[in-house]
Each structure stands twice: as C-alpha cells, then as structure tokens.
Amino acid sequence: MIRGIRDRIVAGTGALTPVKSWLDAAQTATARALLEGAVHKIDDDIYAHLEVRKVLEKLFEQKCAYCESKIGINADWDVEHYRPKGKVAKNSAHPGYYWLAYTWSNLLPSCAFCNQRRHDRASLTEGAGPAAGKMDQFPLEIEQDRCMSHTGDLSIERPMLLNPCVDEPELHIAFDPNGSAIGLTERGQKTIEICHLNRKRLRDDRLEILDAVKQLIKIRQQAQVIGDQNVNDLADKALAKFTSDTAQYAGVARAIIRNPVLFV
Fold this sequence. Notes:
Elements: E1 9-10, E2 14-15, H1 20-36, H2 44-47, H3 50-59, E3 77-81, E4 107-111, H4 112-115, E5 118-121, E6 128-132, E7 173-175, E8 181-183, H5 186-194, H6 200-226, H7 229-243, H8 250-258
Antiparallel strand pairs: 1-2, 3-4, 5-6, 7-8
Helix pairs in contact: 6-7, 6-8
C-alpha cells in the first residue's frame, strides 16, 4: 500500500474527480439516504458507475488501493467503501455507513482478494488456505466512538484500517526479505489482517519485485566501486521505475531502497 492523493491534479486535465453529472447524482442519492436513514436501499448503479470506476483507476494508477495488484480490463475489481455501506462486522446494531454510500472520498478501488472473503489458494493444485478479506470489517480503536447514523461525528472515530488517501502507509507497514508485509504499528498489522495482505500469491508476486530491485542495487553498488557512471545511471533509472507510483508493488521497492541492508 502506498499513499494516494485524492483529487490530484493532472496536467492538461485538471483534478481527477468524477464528472459533474455523477457528482450531482451522488448528491441527490445522498440526500435520499439521509431522509430514509437505515432503511435506505443503496443504489450500486450510482456508486459503482462507469465514470467512478474510470477515475478510480486513474487515481490509483490501475492498482488496488490496498495491495497494489494491477486492476483493470484483465483483472476484475470492486468499487470499495472504506467505511462499509451496508453493515459493520461485529456490531449487529450498526446499519452501515449508508450516508457515505455515494461519497467520493469514501470510495476506493480494491481487488476482489482484498475486498471479498476468499480462500488463500497458492495454486489450482494446492489446498486452499484460510479465508480472509475486508468485506464489512471496519474496527475502531474505541468501539463506543462509532457513529451509528448520519447525525454522528465521524471525526471522533479512530479507524484501525489504514486509509491510503489519508494515512501514510509506509509509516505503518514494512516488508521482510520473503515478501511478507509486517505491521510497524497496531493499525498497520490490523490492515494486513483485514485485507489479507500476506496471501500466498501476493507474497510471491512481491518477492519477484524484491529480487529484481535487490539485483539492481547490487549492480549500482558494483558500478560505483569501479566508477562506471553509465551503468550507475542506468541502474538508477531502473530503480526509479520500480518505485514510481505507477509501478506494481511500489511499496515493496521503496522499502528496499530505504533500508537495503535488510534485504541485500
């Protein structure tokens, strides 16, 4: 997970936000949700509209907001509600954050493995591991602070799940030489558990990036020893691609760059 900038400015196109017609429809739907309260039937044709999906893909560089796996045409993905829209796990009295169902700042792109409850299957021939995924999980540091309706004050909630558009994920989650995510804080560890960020295939994919970055660091170090500036510059350019916002699993690559001694 890396930081995403909501409504970031793109040269020539302006802020990355849904079109005005969707924003107007979302505002109308939200007004209806506030009026109807907990019995409001959420309209997925609005929150999962094509215009929303297009902007979310651009905003997160066609990556899952939680695990950084590629999404798009070749990988199905969900328009995910950071605060769950329909119900909240382990709080049967909560109706879900129905009033945020159409709120742009509450929407994120998520791969099915992070958002849905799925078994950890390393391959088609291996047995399935434990099932996990976010679904309607949204634990708070203090459950009594949870807003039970739209009249509550969200600012008093202290979510355990990291929000990639609000928090700095790299302060909460690190990685080990085997490609596993490690919680640096309680929130980081909880996020890893909620989004199943150590599922087998994801760890294997991270490990490929980790190995490639390690090799580039070694090449750069050798080039510096012998004074080969051309090779050093080429290695720097390659490393910059791995750590770019557009790169898959950039968080892993950045972790190695920050502390190569732990990996090389």
